[in-house]
Write a structure and sequence with these properties.
This protein is an alpha+beta fold and about 325 residues long. The protein is about 35% helix and about 25% strand. It is built from 10 helices and 12 strands. The protein binds adenosine-5'-diphosphate (ADP) and magnesium ion (MG).
Amino acid sequence: MKLSSIGEFGLIEEYIAPEFKNLIQKHMTGIGDDCAIIPVGKTTSHLFTTDMLIEKTHFLREKITPFQLGFKSLAVNLSDIAAMGGKPVSSFLSVGFPEDINIKWVEEFMRGYKDLSQKENTPLLGGDTTKSEDKIIINVGVTGEIQNGKIKRRNGAKEGDIICVTNTLGDSAGGLQCILNNIRISESNQKLFDQHLTPYPHVKEGQWLAEKEEVHAMIDTSDGLSSDLMHILKASNARAHIDVEKIPMTKELIDTAERYNWNSLEMAVSGGEDYGLLLTIDRNAFSSIKKAFIREFQKELFPVGEIVTGEPKIQYLKENKPIEDIRSGYRHF
Ligand code: ADP
Ligand code: MG
């Protein structure tokens, strides 16, 4: 049997996770959420997450500057801490570099990594450095902390909850399409490039949302709305109705997609790497949380649908009628 026949999540669920069931102690939360959680004492928990970026799979060396790659390598990890509502504490950086990599490239990579480290006050505390045959390989691990009662998991969604996102969707997918099609950066698509190459993790937003007990479930949008929402639905054993007309998209995405005949809605629903937050909020608290969120961050909290009962599935609706033809999110293998 080939890896491609079971996919990334099948591999984790069937062949990686079960091996460790009896070693995981009761108080730990392991594989299956954005971070692992280990309580320390009665009030606090430590969070751990790690993510890898491999040349040609996650980035093309000639299409991203080393500064941007350094920034993004940390950003995608901080985004998983944000997804739990945590505060980042430290990072670990392991690199495999081909011998011919220029020292100037490494300097710029570290400048980008340090830029976000400083902005989010997260020191680099360790890592590993090895030679790689031809590809650049980057693995970052981040630790974080959070008070026990405030942790937001994927499994808390309840019937009637409003499903929201903290940023517009699809910009990163639009940026990637521009890059793959050798489209030049211009005023009309700059935002798409920026979102793809230097996404800013919603760490502050995550910590703020963690303070609200009416926020029931949270995940970051790394694989695309359709894929990331399914994680919440499976973990919470619930179904979702998504109103496609409410899916927030920037003018830059809509205009660029129109110009090159791309499907902007499909990019917003299935495209990955937006690195915002996707959460469910008790419907009675939704409007007050939304107002307070706008006051705090001077930006929107976008409602896109609601949680309903039923088996895990996303039902997309247009003018209240079901539609079926939106492709699902990005999967490795
Ligand atoms: P995310 O997109 O939030 O980074 P992933 O989809 O990569 O999460 O992973 C889903 C879950 O599976 C996470 O809890 C992650 O820690 C776990 N996981 C992924 N790959 C492995 C692996 N090789 N070994 C152990 N756990 C893994
Ligand atoms: Mg995640």
